[in-house]
Amino acid sequence: MKNTIKLIKNCLVLMLFTSMALLSCSDDFTNRPSEDSILLDDYYETNVQVATATNAMYNRTWFQFHNKFFFAIGEIGSGNMMSFSSDVSAMRNFSITGSDQELLAGWRSLWANVAQANSIINFLEDRVGPQVDEEVLQNTIGEAYFMRATAYFYLVRLWGPVPIIENSLDYATNPLINTNRVEDVYELIRRDYQQAINRLYEKTRSGNYPQNAKVSKGSAKAMLAKVHLYNGNYQEARTLAQEVINSGEFKLLGGAELPSKSFADLFTYQNNNNEESIFSLQWKVNGVYGNASNCNTQFGISNGTISTSNASYGGVFSPSQDILGLYDSNDLRRRETIMFPGTTYPEILAKNGSNFGPLVVPPADQIGGQNAGAAIKKYCIGVVNGDVTGKADAWAMMENCTYIMRYSELLLIHAEAVLAGGASTSDPAALNSFNAVRNRAGLSSLSSITFNDIFTERRKELAFEGDYWYDLGRIPRSQAIAIMSAQNRGDQNNPAYFTPEEADFILPYPSNDVAKNPKLLDPPVPYVFN
């Protein structure tokens, strides 16, 4: 055991694809040490030490996945956003290749999450002192299972067959490894979320927001419900979603239980880790690059005169022309999702020349960015403004959390699971969930709903939150291609249309890693579970 632990320390829990692109990497395919690797050597002596072992897995290990790749694929690829910036624009016309640097960064970041989770799952239990409470230990291991499942859920939806690695040390001396079948990857994901459900604390999300930051048993049930929905296991998805709803753990901001809040409050710094957050990335401004979020800069307005960021640039991502007409004028989400010309945002401090004041969105031809004629409102919180925004680091990155899943999505999953592939439903349970999301947006209830109603509502509710690409990927390819081919992916003056092919829905493996592990291109093999 001692030799094994020493090997862990010396190798920093080496694994295939472990490091993140922001850190230096050696030329050896398997030797990519991360500054955030868990060192399991005589450290975990108290409950606090064990409970904080997963802290970096809520931010730093996700950074290079989230910083650009998350939006370049999930939003530009899906047609919600557009950009002409060369580092993120490849999916605008489905031209991404294995040499794309943001693709490599996203891939490595997800594998870094797998590596970190593996080190905790496999070795933490043997490295805690007798004074550590069992429930604290099991909750921490449950968090690791949750993170590994979530990383794999992204990997399989983006790349299809990928290697299943449950113990990174198994491959420390054997960097050549086959991919595994998609159905086996999903089996691992389901097992991992179930392990998380078995181990994580039960919680009720309260108004004490810092206590809501980490995932819970309900978080794992909600994510597993989503996995079941993707797999067409509607009864399982419905059962889990209903359990989460009945638990009362989560609530809609601006819904019947929290009428003093609103949809707008979801994307403010003060409401990080609110009652609606099922799982969100926890960004921290601590002077270290890669620990905070760049969304405020990348989404806001920067036209040389008006800026909503402390950075010298901005507006790398913008709304697509296609999404500008998505919302009805009376939909409360419209103003809080997209910044249209002439709209005033008293809560956003902006710089106008040398002056500072509430943001008034300039005319369409003066917004800047990508010449979209509008800008992205979600996650744009403005120039640093005390407790309203929190602080920014030297790179103008901030601490507003990024949602991976909100309660509103769980309600829409529940409605879709009740529909269960049928043509329509007027089932009261489905309508209650679906209409709760609509009503919060100021829209009237529907008495019967179809899949298209739910699918469209998901796009309106979750726009710019990195999910629409995966929604398009789970419907029939011909239907998705028809939707995407009709999207205007140009700017406000130059319409542009592109038609994806079926192969475009699965990304290429990074060329760098294929060169080191050619087996990535071999046919996937079955995985034997213990």
TrEMBL record:
Domain of life of the native organism: Bacteria
Record keywords, A-Z: Cell outer membrane, Membrane, Signal
Positions of the SusD-like N-terminal domain: 53-229
InterPro entries: SusD-like_N, SusD_RagB_dom, TPR-like_helical_dom_sf
Domain RagB/SusD stretches: 276-520
Family named by the database record: Belongs to the SusD family.
Name by which UniProt lists this protein: RagB/SusD family nutrient uptake outer membrane protein
Native organism taxonomy: Bacteria, Pseudomonadati, Bacteroidota, Flavobacteriia, Flavobacteriales
